Amino acid sequence: MKRNKWLLSLSIGLLCCGSAYAQTTVKGKITSEGGEPLIGATVAVKNSTDGTVTDIDGNYSLKTKKTLTQKDLLVFSYVGYKTLQKNYAGNTMNVKLAEESQQLNDVVVTALGIKREEKGLGYATETVKGDMITSALPTNWSTALNGKVAGLSVISSGGPLNSSRISLRGDVSLNQNGNDALVVVDGVPMSSPMTNPGVAYGAGSNSELSVDYGNGFSDINPDDIESIQVLKGASATALYGTRAANGVIMVTTKSGAGAPKGIGVSYSGNFSIDDVMRWPDYQYEFGQGLPSNIGPAGSIYEGQPYYSYGKAEDGSYASTSGTSSAYGTRFDANRLFYQYDPVTQGRASVATPWVAYKNNRKDLFQTGYTLTNSVALTGKSDRGSVRASITHTKNEWILPNTGFQRITAMVSAQQQISRALRINFKSSYTYRKLNNTPALGYNSNSISYFLIFQNPNVNLDWLRPMWRTGQENVKQLQPYSSFIGNPYVILYESENPSEKHSNVSSISANLRINSKFDFMIRSGIQLSADQREQHRPISDVVFGNGFFKKQNVFDYELNSDALFTYHDSFANGLRVNASAGGNMMQQSYDMLAASVVGLITPGVYKLANGVSNPNVQTVIKKKALNSLYFTANFSYKDKLFLDVTGRNDWSSTLPKSNRSFFYPSVSVSAVMNEWFTLPEQISLLKVRGSLAQVGNDTAPYALYNVYTLEALGNHTVGSSSNTYPLADLKPEKTLSWEVGVDYRMFNNRLGIDFTYYRSTTTDQILSMTVPGSSGYASKKINAGKMESKGVELMVTGTPIQTKDWRWDVTLNWGKNTTRNVELDEKNKRYVFPLTTNVRVGKVVIDEGGKFGDIVSTAYKRNEDGRILVGDNGLPLIDTKSEKVIGNMMPEWTGSFGTTLSWKDIVFSALIDVRYGGQFLSMTDAYATGAGNSKRTLSGRDGMVVNGIVESTGLENTKQVTAQEYYATIAGTYPVGEEFLHDATYVKLRELSIGYTLPKIWFRNTPITNVKVSIVGRDLFNIYKAAPVNAEFAQNSQDVFQAFELAALPSTRTVGFSLNVKF
């Protein structure tokens, strides 16, 4: 009996001890549906603190203190995949996770490269997939963003390289270089200055032309882009501090991580042709001459309008070919005149029919083309992946002897060194050889200038010989005007070549300390070396004795980051992800230029061939920025999210007292359909809001007087800065907030994203004009307060979705308004410096006015607004007018995109819209003054200006000639309000059709996928309001697109692409 009691007691004791120390161990493997192991996936027991993560092979081992039963739930989760809950089913549980299909649960790349689920973001962001970039066949990837993101605009320079600047949510800074979005490639911020020499507006002598040699990010290979994440709001970008006040474009390049295991090879190639999309409206009804060219008595043309190249041999009538104006005789093939003889290069001995040559501008251009071939090799194993690619691009632009070749080699590697350590490396090297790029702007030695003043009676073939017979390489052929360069000399002799080497590289190491702590270090560099030249032959219009300039530009930016991350989840549904780190940035720009005016031997472009010693110019800029930052993300039951960030920058370009500045942000979002019971048709209803502060510092050496080498005549001299240094300069700051709603219905077949934002910018860093007696031209000050507000709307829908058919539509719409609240105490109007030498007007902002107001010459008017007319019958012009006549910013922008697929055939189209805003057109103004614009056909038989005679107050009745009238309104100082045009347009931006060939065709080959596509870009304007292209090319003189300064014609592209995977 005692023995039984002892055994019973021992059994109970052991049972109790066993219960006290009981535990369950669950092991298994977590993979994707494709069988790929998911590294770092989370496994947790629901409603407990027990959890673990998977190792490099996707394996896990979860130990829990409690004894699990079939009623207990295990939660398996991984970023980008659907969270799975499964009842405990034994000590071994292998799980496959499905990729998250819901749109708002997509993984997006946010600031510092941190990956987040879009569902948890409290600010607006948009993703553009890489195939949406490459399908547009761009030579510059940024131009393919047009129309794809609400509130985003891309302004390009034109020309083969097509330098561009990206603007998000309008321009808010009065600092002309302070409105560009920051471009970040694989975590490496890109320094992208436009360092074009010369000026765009300068028809006089001794002025260099503006030449587009490309900016920093223009050489990113489109075929290497995996995706682009556009971060718009200040909360999205605050972690980048002072550089991200205007948004961030996050470019992620391709890697081997998403490739299947083993070795893979892919090829992509495309061929596209370019031609002029739209020409200005030129007239071809009247030829060279003036209305006063009437045959004198006794001549064969007595009393009649006539034309003569040079005077009559007997002296009975004068030459009419000495003018660039086309107000002469109406074309009539039955009338015979003595014109130019291309054989003798003088006056013809035989009269020929008086006809127009309607292709004498178009025939100067050619059908350009771009050919791109790219091969990529991928390799992937359980522990790592690699991708290597090489891409060759050859471009022949629409002007002869212009274009470039580009070779890009890229390698991306990822390796799991151990269960805890992962290494990532990416490097892209680009070699670009620019054969020639055309000079830009209104200058007597540019193609644009020639196009404006080319008379309709001139056969372009007459100019092809380039040189005067017997004076080759010494005297260019200019039969009509010494002020207009021969276009073939400009294209084939006045070359602007360059050779550029550039590299973007980054390396990072991620250390998983344990299941809750990670540590990352990353270093990235972007550097380039560009050797540029300018060739100007003897008899050049600007440099009559020839000119040669050699320019070496070397710039780099080095960024190093360290980031410590803590992440954990709790039984109450709270998840925390917090990071803290720092950044060190060094930036350097070094330009050395030497030039000679006058060549000893024609056609030899060397500094040693100069008549004088080389003039040397140097520009050296260095900048450092050190930063500390933190970010914390809180998620409660995946339905309430809170983000808090902060960054402190120390900038070398600001004084010590103001060098440190802090940028905080906070954002919150709530998934309302998780909190409340809503109709089942609603897939998601999320509200979000954010508040942040970001800012701008200034360019290097704004605080001190520095010296550079400059050219003065034929001498090199030391030159001090013309900007008065301000020792207590402060950073420009922008306080921004936004609210928004993300709404999905019918299993995400209908989506609406709405955002309202508002920002206030203070302490603007302005360059103000100072009296010349001070010894300076301008000074930097902190002044001004700007307010910007806007609305963005994106609507997505899938009206049709069946087994074979799918139809998707996307609508983007954005509206932004920026106004000035206050300026400096002494100045109530700020004039943007780079617009001050444009004769027709300038861009200003008045206290209380809108950003981008245009001030220009105007008609004199009476109290009733009627135009005042002089006694000669011509309108009176106020050349010193300070009147605001328009605004360059659009009222709103939008786009409509649609994709229709049937089985393996995909058709897509994109329509881009800009409504409102104005610009001043120099092409229209000067072509009008010269009589080459179609608008000058009105009044050729005489006209009466509608106005009031100033001296009498009576209605004007005096008749004037068309030439007198148009020479008055479009002369040296054109009347701005006459050439102010509505910038509204509706453009077919993209059109494509693609076909994926049936795989059965290649079942006995190593080929796994083949896709062919036909693509069109910028095909035509569905609607246009202006007589010239409203989406004209930018140049260094017009960073805001208020003035069309004799831009080259824009292009349209049609092409074919082939993609093959092995």
Record the SSE blueprint:
Layout: H1 2-21, E1 24-32, E2 42-45, E3 51-53, E4 59-64, E5 73-77, E6 84-87, E7 95-97, E8 107-109, E9 115-117, E10 125-129, H2 130-134, E11 152-156, E12 164-168, E13 182-185, E14 188-189, E15 210-211, E16 225-231, H3 234-237, E17 248-253, E18 262-276, E19 332-337, E20 340-341, E21 346-347, E22 352-354, E23 368-380, E24 384-396, E25 403-416, E26 421-436, E27 439-440, H4 447-453, H5 487-492, E28 498-512, E29 517-536, E30 547-569, E31 574-597, E32 615-636, E33 640-651, E34 660-671, H6 672-675, E35 682-696, E36 707-712, E37 715-720, E38 723-724, E39 732-745, E40 750-762, E41 765-769, E42 778-782, E43 785-801, E44 805-822, E45 829-831, E46 841-846, E47 853-856, E48 858-859, E49 868-869, E50 877-878, E51 884-887, E52 892-902, E53 905-915, E54 918-921, H7 922-929, E55 943-944, E56 948-949, E57 959-960, H8 962-969, E58 980-982, E59 985-996, E60 1009-1024, E61 1043-1044, E62 1051-1061
Parallel strand pairs: 1-7, 13-17, 38-42, 49-56, 54-61
Antiparallel strand pairs: 1-4, 2-3, 2-5, 5-6, 8-9, 10-16, 11-12, 13-14, 15-27, 16-17, 18-23, 18-62, 19-22, 20-21, 23-24, 24-25, 25-26, 26-28, 28-29, 29-30, 30-31, 31-32, 32-33, 33-34, 34-35, 35-39, 36-37, 39-40, 40-43, 41-42, 43-44, 44-52, 45-46, 46-47, 47-51, 48-50, 52-53, 53-59, 54-58, 55-57, ...
